[in-house]
Give the backbone structure.
Amino acid sequence: MTVKNLTTYFQSYYDGLMGIEVRNSETASTEKLNYSEIKFKKSKNGFVGEMKVWDSFFTKDYIVLNMKVTEQLCNDNSVQIVRCEVSPKPFKHNIWSAFNEVVLKDECK
């Protein structure tokens, strides 16, 4: 996993989920929505990042989401487990501690 790959994957996912292409093609306005802006950096345990995305579901405005991504490779069975934690809350908020309580049921069996 690389910063470039993560950026590409998340941008494609969120732009598709939020319907950026559809919205831009349907509007007669010259003011088009911007594509997701994503910044990842390598961290001690994987990657941390921030995304500015269009929220087509609730706010109808741009929101900032914080992310942590970890990767686990299981060599015995060639499985890659990618765990993504996403929240609009800053990294010091207690929601990030709550993510630590989530345990994968079948880690590298």
The first helix runs from residue 3 to 17. DSSP finds three helices and four strands in the chain.
